[in-house]
Amino acid sequence: xxxxxxxxxxDNPDSLALRHRLRPSHQAHLRATGGHRVVVxxxxxxxxxxxxxxxxxxxxxxxxxxxxxxxxxQDDPYVQGGLFASIQIRPWYWSLGNPEMRG
Length: 103
Hints:
Layout: E1 3-11, H1 16-31, E2 38-47, E3 54-63, H2 66-74, H3 77-80, E4 84-92
């Protein structure tokens, strides 16, 4: 593996009930990646400006390639259930706070 990717996803408007319904299966997917060769290093929901309501997802995933991450994301129950209005996946260099970068 060794390469990191940041996943930014934004929920469709008025989809909080759908998010809550799918959340247990989404969390299980992140923890048990199945046949995907990825590791979810950290993540969580993004919040509205008031910091009160979930409105998206941020994940950092370690994988060997962008296609591996794309396949993993496509199998996410949030994606399968139509929660997201948009998804961006970007290669990411983890420097600040990376325990492997301390020396």
